[in-house]
Design goal:
alpha/beta; Rossmann fold; Arc Repressor Mutant, subunit A; 2 domains; 10 helices
Length: 216
């Protein structure tokens, strides 16, 4: 018998949770094992249940999704958290990724895309709703970032790391894939941020896409 993927839903709207739970429980080999209405209750639940994936709202009372994600990842670094959002939450999305979320989903996602997102995250990769990723790319392209790459030189290893980041690999996965330490991966990413004058991984990816620094 195949173990079902255990999902936790964290959202302060009971009707939304109920609808999402119904959809998830209809997906093959997937089930909802717990629900919470705010970040504090979510952290408490993690002491007694072990979800494979957490679908977590950003804006919630008591403790919002960003703080809840930071606290959860600090204690359970392998926990897979995916942000749930509406388009009016866009300003929080980068904060969620920096906190350790594995991606973000629009709340109006259909069942097919939800199933694809769950499968992708379970494999250790990141998942981003296409509409939101397009927003991020355009947002950082519009920002006053240097677009002249004539003096920018990337090493072979930096190119390898960028390609793996684009595929959604975590620092640990990149390290395992390239047979280097996680500390070395972090060092390369820091150098990449410095070279491109970017402040986050999301900005770095948008910069790479804009300037076509790698083939992908």
């Amino acid at each position: 018998m195949i173990d079902k993927i255990a999902i936790m839903i964290v959202d302060d709207h009971e009707i939304f949770r109920s609808g999402l739970k119904t959809v998830i429980n209809k997906i093959k080999n997937t089930r909802v094992i717990a629900e919470a209405s705010n970040g504090r209750d979510f952290l408490s639940l993690l002491e007694t249940v072990t979800p494979d994936i957490v679908l977590l709202d950003i804006e919630m009372p008591v403790m919002n999704g960003v703080e809840a994600t930071k606290n959860a990842i600090a204690k359970y670094p392998d926990l897979k958290i995916v942000a749930l959002t509406m388009f009016n939450n866009k300003e929080y999305l980068e904060s969620m990724l920096e906190a350790g979320a594995k991606g973000f989903l629009l709340k109006n996602i259909n069942s097919e895309d939800l199933e694809r997102a769950i499968e992708t995250v379970m494999k250790g990769n990141n998942y981003y709703s296409e509409e939101l990723w397009n927003y991020f790319t355009q947002k950082f392209i519009r920002e006053d970032k240097p677009s002249n790459t004539s003096g920018l030189t990337l090493t072979k290893r930096e190119v390898e790391i960028i390609k793996l980041i684009l595929e959604g690999y975590s620092n640990k996965d990149i390290a395992d894939n390239l047979f280097i330490s996680e500390r070395t991966v972090i060092g390369h990413k820091s150098n990449l941020l410095s070279k491109t004058n970017c402040k986050s991984t999301v900005q770095l990816l948008a910069y790479v896409i804009k300037n076509k620094l790698v083939d992908f």
